[in-house]
Design brief:
The complex is a heterodimer. Chain A is mainly α. Chain A is 76% helix and 0% strand. The longest helix of chain A has 29 residues. Chain A starts with a helix and ends with a helix. Chain B is mainly α. Chain B has one domain. The radius of gyration of chain B is 18 Å and the shape is elongated. Classes of the chains: A mainly alpha, B mainly alpha.
Chain lengths: 153, 170
Amino acid sequence: MQSLLHWLESTNLAISVAGSTMLTASLSAVHVIGFTLVVGGALVANLRGLGALFRKRNVDVVGPTNRAILVGLAISIATGVVLFSARATEVAENGTFRLKMLLLVLAVLIHFVFQAPEAKRVDAPRRVRTASAVSLTLWLGLAATACAFILLE
Amino acid sequence: MTILDACEWLQSTALATWVQESAYGFPIVVAVHLLGLIFSVGTLLWVDVRMLGLGLRELRVSEVYRGLAPWFLVGFVAMLASGATLFTAYATSAYSNAYFRIKLVALLLAGANALVFHFITQKQSAQWDDAPHPPLAVRTAGLASVILWATVILAGRMMSYTMFSGPSGP
């Protein structure tokens, strides 16, 4: 693991990013854009699942949010990996970063595995409501942890 | 009194001192600012998506707007209040920062775009409210909103890297 992190840091891309504030800032800006797509989609989907939004419409009306979340994840993960590579050994040891990654994996799993929007009905089944509540909590926890990671270093 | 004088006065207020000197003042206000931003822009984006005819087409435009408005308005209030608080503490350096100026212009244009849409374009909403692909004026307003808010986020992040020494900040 340690050698993999060292190898990441020694790549040309990582060295360029580590040496350039403008490159780091630009990547971080695009990272936040991707994350806004993710959290916005997750909010709309889960608020519908909980019955707090568009409650007169079928549960699967928010289906398009899944594609937006995936696009946002692709943007955030691509830029995140490059940002990580520039400081891999240091960041891998960071507790807030580890929590952020754990919440990311859990949020994606709960959101996409337990919440398949098959429901062509107005009242969400109990399973969907529970999954929405858990998913929303995880996404918001991820957002809070992401802020903490930016600020507590 | 010049704008710079006003910025210097702002930085001498008790609020500015609290942000600069208390242990958790700055990180807490920045966290509220970032979360408010993600919350508001993330949900407002879906009004734009509907206006562009790209998604949520089964819902009326007004239905998407009314459903999401309470959520993005709360986010906006949190973002603007925390942003104004942060500005008092770093007013002079923000004033001279090019990204801050870009961000402010984009923010004002986004507000103007929303007002024009609300008070002019929406007057004829009966004709397109349930249309899967709304007319050009509506789509243009949606696209302008997406571009302007993306500019606000991008310039905001660039600003925090160029105004402070470390990779932190608002």
